[in-house]
Design a protein that fits this description.
With about 130 residues, the chain is mainly alpha-helical. It has six helices and two strands, in the order E-H-H-H-H-H-H-E. InterPro entries: DUF4234.
Length: about 130
Amino acid sequence: MSGRAGKTRNIFLVWLIWPLITLGIYHLVWYYKVNREARDFDHRIEVDPVKSLLALAVGWLLIVPPFVSVYNTGLRIARMQESAGLQRSCNPWIGLILFILAGLYPLYYQHELNQIWAHYKIPEEGEQVPLAA
């Protein structure tokens, strides 16, 4: 079984620089891409990246959806780590706490994703990589 690799990104650019330059739009693009990468990496991870993005972007109207979406994204990253043959090190509760604390969760989640891609020796985005489980 194999899946498609995602992109290794600089955690500080993801968290601070690109969102500042794009007035926050990059953050939404990043969030969509992270969830799409989870789906493309392992077909057993069920996620609709558009729904995840909408929960984050406009879910504030109902208060709860952004928190659920950020937590579930952390779970997906942990499942990706298992699929790559790594120990689960991504904790969705830490991601949720960092989300509440000034939106620091992109630092954490991108770091965890970068570990997966480093395990595969930093493949090109979209390259097929073998899954362990």
